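User: Structure please.
Assistant: Input sequence and predicted structure:
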Amino acid sequence: MSELRQNRATKNWIIIASERARRPDDFRRRDRPAALPVHDPACPFCTGNERMTPPEVMAVRPSGSKADGPGWSLRVVPNKFAALEPVGELTRREERDFFRKMDGVGRHEVIIESPVHNETIGTMFQKKVEQILLAYRERYLRISEDGHFQHVTIFRNNGEGAGTSLAHPHSQLIATPIVPSQTRQVLEEAMRYYDDRGSCVYCDMVEEEIAARKRIVLESDDFVVFEPFASRKPFETWIVPRRHNASFGNISAAEAKKCAHVLRRVLGILHRHLGDPDYNLMICTAPFKDANESYYHWHVEILPRLTTTAGFELGSGIYINVALPEQTARYLSGLMKKGKRRG
């Protein structure tokens, strides 16, 4: 019989469709995409094509290496087709006292993760992934100093099914002068839980998942990886720090490196054993003004695109998941243990 499950952090309900449930192995991508070249002369993110992007705002390159030229290992550039621009007025305006609008002020940046065209986080060396997380942190901190913005969203779209238009390994960052409504709703639910229980719902979720031991994928001294009880999609995976912290911007460089270690292992397993699936990765963090609150907890959400979101889900907001989180967690956990034994 199918189940309705509720995410205690968001109050959203999902359906676990056990009648349609598939085994974890069934989600492995069979039509694996064609192998990419190491370098694509037409790709604006490949080394040697730096003139095809706006000037870099940050780069990791040897000292003496010329900006906006070859030799880098990571670059951050403004998105050439930015959703928002760092110009304009922040004043909200209304037409007919009803239709509200404001200038599209913001920052939209691309983190070009590697000069190698066919790399991805799950196949990179550990030091490389650390470099990416440190770049996330540096750009987050720099933008948080700008009084124009309230929130930063860092995300990664992997594959066409996840919305990417360029195969070259990259992430994106968008800073907004408003708090996104979805983030605000999540914060409000977390605040209600804190007011009722006196504790952070995410801290409690981690403790309950560890106690239940049904959906744990990986544990380290600093992070817990699990498939949420009310997973929206097959293999939805969360990486949550053990230490309470509302904002990604509060983490130290050492914590960023530790997160990189866990993230690389998780994405490596998905890459190898699910056939390099399309996925969306989001760093969920509090707005700048809520960075030190007790009721929210920053974390990473990975949402593989293994099934199609259809009319019922779009119309109701209730996702239908055709995989049991307990089974997908057991599958991934087993692969993690095998990989660790092999060194």
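The chain has six helices and 15 strands.
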